[in-house]
Each structure stands twice: as structure tokens, then as C-alpha cells.
Design a protein that fits this description.
CATH class: Alpha Beta
Order of helices and strands: HEEHHHEHEHEEHEHEE
Structural class: alpha/beta
Helix content: 25-40%
Strand content: 25-35%
CATH superfamily: Vaccinia Virus protein VP39
């Protein structure tokens, strides 16, 4: 009888051509599920006229965004023993996987896209992190405190989720409800997509610190590029 991972991969394979690819991290190597021929997949979406809302219909969540990797490494500066971490807009869950490997006691990776959560769950199982990392659907625009997390989180982190201005106010309200006393929230954004408006809003309710980190990566053509990322750190004022 197939196990959960085999069943999940069979389900994913009905829609996507996928394979696990290695990602080197400080704590070793992760295996990350990747759409094998992204361009062919995008072409098929165009042919079928399946792209109505690019932010939802394009599998941007399947990409390993450098900011997720960078923020996962940045979190190593903070105490992890006995600490909980919630990743918002997790996509395939790389940030959460890196945090779990580092030693956080509880990691929850969340998204609103069901396909993203399936990829994230497959990554959790493939990397032997079941029991350490949970996956769940979570929408920060839902009012009230989420009953699944009555104690809140020590840390909340997200990479590249500030692109929608309409999300800013609900996101800050979510943080107020779900950060534990003394907790911190971290947002990593490529400076090319920086949102100063969010920082101004956040400073009204939180103590705000901003730092900048550089990261070398390669584009789809294999050319090396250096990008600068903003990391916003929010603490209850």
C-alpha cells in the first residue's frame, strides 16, 4: 500500500511534471519538489487560456525564491530552542524547512493555494521533517484569532508577500492577534519590489527595524546576479 508521500506525488503528477532537486543549506541538503519544465507548463496554461488572475493562476509558489532562503538563514541569529515559527505565504515551504533544520521546536508553513500546500507537504515528507513541520491553509484576511493557534507564535516570517497593498492592513492585524508577547515578525523583500507604505503602517503599531542584505544568485539563463533585500523586523511597541 503506498505511503502518504507516494500518494501525494501521484496526485501532484496528474497536474504537474515534477522532480525533487537538491538545495544546499547550512545544515546540509534539502530536497525540494520542482516543476521540471516550467516554461512548458506556462505555455500549456496560455494555450488553455487558464490564466485569469496571474497572482493565483501562475505557479509562482513553486519557485524557490532567493528571499526565502535568505530569511531562513537570517533567522539563525535568533533563539530557536523551544520556539515556534509560522511562515506565511510559504509556497513550497523552503523558509520553513530551513528553520526546522536549524532547530525550531514547531514550524507551521501556510498558504492559501492548495497546490502550494501539496508541494510543501511533499517537501516535509521527503526531507524527514514530519512531526516537526505542519502545513495548513491560512488566510490572514480572515477576521478574529485562528482557533488552531490559541497560544500564538514566537516568530512569524514571510518572504515576498508584500506585493499586494490591500493585504497590508489585514496582515498587521493578524500579527497583533497571533504574535506572542515579545514575539517578532520578519518580512524579506527584494528591494526592487520594496513597499515603503507597509513599513510606515507597521511603525504605528510595532517597533520597526529594517536591515539590508545582499545575495548572489543565478537567473534562469545561469547568469550570476547580486540582489539587495530588505528585512523588516516588527516587535510589539
Amino acid at each position: 500500500m503506498p505511503g502518504e508521500l507516494e500518494t501525494l506525488l501521484a496526485h501532484i503528477g496528474q497536474k504537474f511534471d515534477v522532480a525533487f532537486e537538491p538545495l544546499q543549506v547550512d545544515e546540509g541538503q534539502l530536497q525540494v519538489l520542482t516543476i521540471r519544465n516550467m516554461q512548458a507548463h506556462l505555455d500549456s496554461l496560455l494555450v488553455r487560456k487558464a490564466i485569469r488572475d496571474p497572482l493565483r493562476d501562475l505557479p509562482l509558489w513553486a519557485k524557490v525564491w532567493p528571499g526565502s532562503f535568505l530569511l531562513g538563514r537570517f533567522l539563525r541569529k535568533y533563539p530557536c530552542e523551544g520556539k515556534s515559527l509560522l511562515e506565511l505565504g510559504a509556497g513550497c515551504g523552503v523558509l520553513g524547512l530551513v528553520a526546522a533544520r536549524h532547530g525550531f521546536a514547531r514550524v507551521v508553513v501556510s498558504d492559501v493555494v492548495e497546490d502550494a500546500l501539496r508541494f510543501a507537504r511533499a517537501n516535509v515528507l521527503q526531507n524527514g521533517l514530519d512531526g516537526r513541520v505542519e502545513t495548513c491553509r491560512l488566510d490572514v484576511t480572515t477576521p478574529g484569532k485562528d482557533a488552531r493557534f490559541p497560544e500564538g507564535f514566537d516568530y512569524i516570517a514571510a518572504s515576498e508577500i508584500l506585493y499586494l497593498d490591500t493585504l497590508h492592513r489585514p496582515l498587521l492585524k493578524f500579527l497583533s492577534r497571533h504574535l506572542r508577547p515579545g514575539g517578532k515578525a520578519f518580512f524579506c523583500t527584494d528591494m526592487a519590489r520594496a513597499k515603503p507604505h507597509f513599513a510606515k503602517l507597521a511603525a504605528r503599531s510595532f517597533h520597526l527595524t529594517e536591515g539590508h542584505l545582499g545575495l548572489k544568485s543565478r537567473d534562469e539563463q545561469g547568469q550570476e546576479q547580486r540582489r539587495v533585500y530588505s528585512i523588516l523586523i516588527l516587535e510589539h511597541a
